[in-house]
Design a protein that fits this description.
Structural class: mainly alpha
Shape: elongated
Distance between the termini: 73 Å
Radius of gyration: 34 Å
Order of helices and strands: HHHHH
Number of strands: 0
Number of helices: 5
Helix content: over 70%
Length: 116
């Protein structure tokens, strides 16, 4: 996995751009036309690398912005007084153990049959 550090990514971009410029200059000195230079596989690979690194920087920017917003939201939430929780009605929840087991269902079915 690549580095998540802005500084490292910026250095990688600088290196890729300098490599790209050096490669273009080398090919021009050989006497190649600009259209041919742009079609060179090494040039295309270096341009793709620069695009990838720029995309990574954008992602880092987006994550940093999101983290700042979260920190701000947490600070605001901590500054507010705590909310009082509402109490529920007593006995509103049924006891799960009362009728959930097989034995309990059989017992209730048997007691209904005895009443008939």
């Amino acid at each position: 996995m690549g580095s998540q550090s802005r500084v490292v990514r910026e250095k990688q971009i600088e290196k890729a751009k300098s490599d790209l410029a050096g490669m273009e200059e080398k090919l021009r000195k050989k006497g190649l036309k600009p259209e041919v230079v742009g079609k060179n596989s090494e040039i295309r690979a270096l341009k793709a690398k620069v695009r990838q690194l720029n995309s990574a920087l954008e992602t880092i920017d987006r994550l940093e912005k999101k983290n700042e917003e979260l920190k701000k939201h947490k600070a605001e939430k901590a500054a507010r007084p705590p909310e009082k929780k509402k109490k529920g009605k007593k006995g509103a929840k049924k006891d799960k153990a009362a009728g959930s087991s097989k034995k309990a269902r059989k017992k209730s079915a048997a007691s209904k049959q005895k009443k008939k």
